[in-house]
Amino acid sequence: MQVYVCAKHVPDTAANIKIKGENDYDTTGLKFVVNPYDEYGLEEAVRLVEKAGKGEVVIVTVGPAQAANTMRSALAMGAARGILVKSDDKFLDSRTAARALKAAIEKDGSPDMIFTGKTSVDTEGSQTPYRVAREFDFPVANEISALEIQDGKATAEREIGGGAREVLEMSTPCVIGATKGLNEPRYPKFPDIMKAKKKEIKEFELADLGIDAPASDGAPVKLEPVPERSGAKIMQGGSVRESVEELVKTLKDSKVL
Q1: Which of 71, 133, 139, 167 is the most exposed place for a label (fewest CB within 10 A)?
Q2: How many CA atoms lie within 13 A of 8 on its CB side?
Q3: How far apart are CA 97 and CA 63, in angstroms?
Q4: What gap in Å lies between CA 106 and CA 14, rounded to an integer?
Q5: What is the model's pLDDT at position 170?
Q6: Is the Cβ–Cβ distance between 180 and 55 less than 8 Å?
Q7: What is the pLDDT of residue 212?
Q8: Interatomic CA distance for residues 111 and 3, integer angstroms
């Protein structure tokens, strides 16, 4: 069984990102990690291979050369090896990324399953599962929180709002976009981390895969930091009525009401 996991190299959500110029950010000293949602896909892929008792999990990433270090974390979680398609474009358009992922996977082998995260925590485009599936002409289901694969069929569940859940059945191979609740990603132990340092990561340029330099249909025009939240205010009224009156006055003064 050949299972591929598309994992993105993203800034740590706890990092302090400094904007550089109009549409760039400074990576100096910035910590990068495996996209958290991709970790759910990786864990599910590893469990699938472990259950089958054969096959391997391969990590595929499109990103800068430094992404190889991030991929080691994924390899420590149980992936057998990795493929890195190098691109220094921080905002590589999703169409080019999907083409690169497909070309890298096809150059390596034939997928029995492909996993991604439901979205990436940096751009939150939520395009990768659908575009990769389109490139391969595979069925796709995103935001999956429960999955069962048996007899060439994948039965996937996802929440659709209001507490309701949707159940989808697809033939395999297919593309699964994982989300929180699908599993609990394992925490690599020290021996796994050491073994990951020796695992193979093949590297390609976009040109090696027959992909031209991206000509994106869209690009960031301007980046702005998220405004800091204003401080909380405690209502000091002596009674419930006084507190409510003070609250209404504050909302009116703030032009909320």
Answers
A1: 167
A2: 29
A3: 9
A4: 35
A5: 96
A6: no
A7: 80
A8: 6
Q: Which two tokens stand for residue 146?
A: 């429960």
If we measure between CA atoms, which residue out of 91, 32, 25 comes closest to residue 224? 25
* pLDDT (0 to 100) of residue 215: 59
- Using one digit for the tens of pLDDT, what is the confidence trace for 146-167? 999 999 999 999 988 888 899 9
Q: What is the pTM of this model?
A: 0.85
Q: Which residue has the tokens 């659709």?
A: 160
Least Cα distance to 69 among 103, 27, 98 occurs for 27
**SS3 assignment, position 196:** helix
What's the full length of the chain, in residues? 257
Superfamily of domain 2-209: HUPs (3.40.50.620)
pLDDT < 70: residue spans in the chain: 213-217, 230-231, 237, 257
Token pair 């939520």 in the structure block, residue: 126
Quick one: which of 218, 136, 220, 223 has its CA closest to 176?
136
Beta partners for residue 178, in sequence order: 117, 144
Q: Distance between CA 141 and CA 122 in Å, rounded?
A: 21
Is 105 in contact with 98 (CB distance < 8 Å)?
A: no
Delimit the domains of the chain by residue range. Answer: 2-209, 227-257
Residues whose CB falls within 8 Å of the CB of residue 115, separated by 6 or more in sequence, listed in order: 3, 4, 5, 6, 38, 41, 42, 44, 45, 175, 176, 177, 178
- List pLDDT tens digits, range 67-111: 999 999 999 999 999 999 999 888 888 999 999 999 999 999 999
